[in-house]
Amino acid sequence: MAEPAARSCCLGWDFSTQQVKVVAVDADLNIFYEDSVHFDRDLPEFGTQGGVHVHEDGLTVTSPVLMWVQALDIILEKMKALGFDFSQILALSGAGQQHGSIYWKTGASQTLTSLSPEIPLHQQLEACFSISNSPVWMDSSTTAQCRQLEAAMGGAQALSCLTGSRAYERFTGNQIAKIYQQNPEAYSQTERISLVSSFAASLFLGSYSPIDYSDGSGMNLLQIHDKVWSQACLSACAPHLGEKLGPPVPSCSVVGNISPYYIQHYGFHPGCKVVAFTGDNPASLAGMRLEEGDIAVSLGTSDTLFLWLQEPMPSLEGHIFCNPVDSQHYMALLCFKNGSLMRERIRDESASCSWSEFSKALQTTEMGNGGNLGFYFDVMEITPEITGRHRFNADNCEVSAFPRDVEIRALIEGQFMAKRIHAEGLGYQVMPKTKILATGGASHNRDILQVLADVFAAPVYVMDTASSACVGSAYQAFYGLAAEADVSFSEVVKLAPHPRLAATPTPGAAQVYEALLPKYAKLEQRILSQTRGPPK
Ligand SMILES: O=C(CO)[C@@H](O)[C@H](O)CF
């Protein structure tokens, strides 16, 4: 009889807000299978919009946990129907939307560990959740719980130094506190609380999977330096919380072998390993193969920065997470709300709705824009909390308008100087080996990338990151297998496709922006003090 194919691939999963996605990656790190199930389109019976339910209060946002389970049944059954050879899978890992929480009802572990291979997962797990609609990252109904936690921990900055972030409404500790306060019965009937990432891992493990350090950093509960739960934070949120969470683990941990359910029903190899799942953003960092000193700039509706940090400086803005691929280092997220919508507005107003006119303006204006600086926040900015448009000439005098071309350069230079200043505020440093990875819509505009390269004085690369969380999870699965042999992540992923060089710094750029950056920072503080009023 022919030898079964040597097991040679890993699966990467992404349980995101709008879909469940899977990629299969071979030993050369090529993707040879991918599929997804969209909640709104493929599971309309749950009635979600964008994968969620926004409640009447406009603040509470949840997703039905059984919708996630059923999506997994669908995607696996389709793979089986297509004849996918599950026996070739060496390991699997995955990602989940960060901050969401799942509440396993007392007794659920017995069901999870004794799944019948003949019945779909979602039917067997129907009665396993004490909360059927899980709060997700878009929820902003826990402001009271955030204030209570910060008060209990000595203030916002103290909480940030301990857990990597001040209290945020979507962070899981505050969500758990709300459930304990408003639904104590359900809380008392909960034997285990998972994140979306560890919940998904539990489905494959057939038992409760631990929370990993990286996604656990998004809860306002984990001490990011010691990588243990803060007992003070746990107690401030809800009683017996540590027991319900279980101990956290490194993000590349092998948490066990796949559940017999998958071996018997799909033909997975009994030796297939489950590697800890993590948050979608940490998994994306892995998928983009960021290294120390690198920075990823996602230029989307809002602009998001992914930073690799060695010595983080937690602050009242942004988020510091444990690094998913190097447990001695960290990563940071910074979100800038005025991203592509702001760029499109200025394009319409100052470049006749044309990106080529917009690009021409960048090509025909000098680096540094003659000392003119602009701040463009048509919606309340997150980083920092400023709104409105503010323009300053070379003498630091506020002016009401700029010529069209100057306006366009002032917008783009301002957006990127803000990113560099706030990244450095979190402890980031541009290093000689720094690479900037640009993704998202605006990364297709070479002239915008040229400004990015000039402001950071570093080369800019682009890559397709549409499935970066999924692909990063597949890389993590390979890494989990190799980590036991002490092989580094970069060694494991060295065969992965390389990003394409898109722009290098213009000669003299470093000098221009080293002079401008402090000026921009001072003006930003000036606007903040004007809008916040004098310090109390
Ligand atoms: O809240 C976020 C990060 O802090 C989002 O990026 C979610 O992870 C998206 F699922």
Short description:
Helix content is 38%, strand content 21%.
How many domain units? 2
Low-confidence segments, given as residue ranges, are none
Q: Got a strand count? A: 24
> Which fold name fills CATH's third level, the topology of the largest domain?
Nucleotidyltransferase, domain 5
Mean pLDDT over the full residue set: 95
Number of helices: 21
Structural classification: alpha+beta
> What are the distinct ligands in this entry?
5-deoxy-5-fluoro-D-xylulose
Q: Per the principal axes of the C-alpha atoms, what is the gross shape?
A: globular
> What is the C-alpha radius of gyration, as a whole number of Å?
24 Å
Key terms for this structure?
single chain, 536 residues, alpha+beta, Nucleotidyltransferase, domain 5, seven-stranded mixed sheet, binds 5-deoxy-5-fluoro-D-xylulose, FGGY_N, EC 2.7.1.17
Please render the helix and strand layout as text.
Blueprint: E1 9-15, E2 19-26, E3 31-38, H1 39-42, E4 53-54, E5 61-64, H2 65-81, E6 89-96, E7 101-105, H3 108-113, H4 121-124, E8 133-135, H5 143-152, H6 156-163, H7 172-182, H8 184-188, E9 190-195, H9 196-205, H10 213-216, E10 222-223, E11 228-229, H11 231-237, H12 241-245, E12 254-257, H13 260-266, E13 273-275, E14 278-279, H14 280-287, E15 295-299, E16 303-309, E17 319-322, E18 330-336, H15 340-350, H16 355-364, E19 373-377, E20 388-392, E21 398-399, H17 404-425, E22 436-439, H18 446-456, E23 460-462, H19 468-483, H20 489-492, E24 500-503, H21 509-532
Parallel strand pairs: 1-6, 6-13, 6-14, 15-22, 22-23
Antiparallel strand pairs: 1-2, 2-3, 4-5, 5-8, 7-9, 10-11, 12-13, 15-16, 16-18, 17-18, 19-20, 20-21, 23-24
Helix pairs in contact: 5-7, 5-11, 7-11, 14-19, 15-17, 16-17, 16-18, 17-18, 17-21
5-deoxy-5-fluoro-D-xylulose binds at residues 16-17, 97-99, 137, 170, 218, 279-281, 319, 333.
Pfam families: FGGY_C, FGGY_N
Keywords: ATP-binding, Carbohydrate metabolism, Kinase, Nucleotide-binding, Transferase, Xylose metabolism
Catalytic activity: D-xylulose + ATP = D-xylulose 5-phosphate + ADP + H(+)
